[in-house]
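Researcher: Here's the sequence for the chain we discussed earlier.
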Amino acid sequence: MFANLLSLLTVCTLRMPFLC
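Model: Thanks. This is the structure I predict for it:
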């Protein structure tokens, strides 16, 4: 669960930083 959340956050930060 934590790994999934972390991966989601990483993708969010790397690919869509303006949305985060």
